[in-house]
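Could you help me review a protein record that somebody else here produced? My question to you is simply how this chain folds and whether the tokens agree. Thanks in advance; the entry in question is below:
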Amino acid sequence: RVELRVPLLRQHAEIREGDAVEMVVGSDKSYFAEFEAVREAYFPASGAWVGEYPFLDRRAMPAISGRIARDAEERDVWARPGGNRVDTGGVRGPPS
């Protein structure tokens, strides 16, 4: 669980506790067990950003977010026993 403390702005009105959020973080710990310096957070469902200053090029994040979602869906398909395998045009997925 991550808690962000930022000034409340009108564009934050659609954000609810428990909403999915994507952040770029840095950590000295393996597996990101602990991290610091969360500068910005992106809420893909509403397209809202939280952060005091735009450190990232925010125009790129929706595309990155979409790719994260597609990759997660593909992993879910491959993880299902006997799951539907999709023709990937010769790109090989994880071994069965």
Remarks:
- The beta strands are 22-23, 41-43, 48-50.
- The radius of gyration is 17 Å.
- The mean pLDDT is 76.
- The first helix runs from residue 61 to 79.
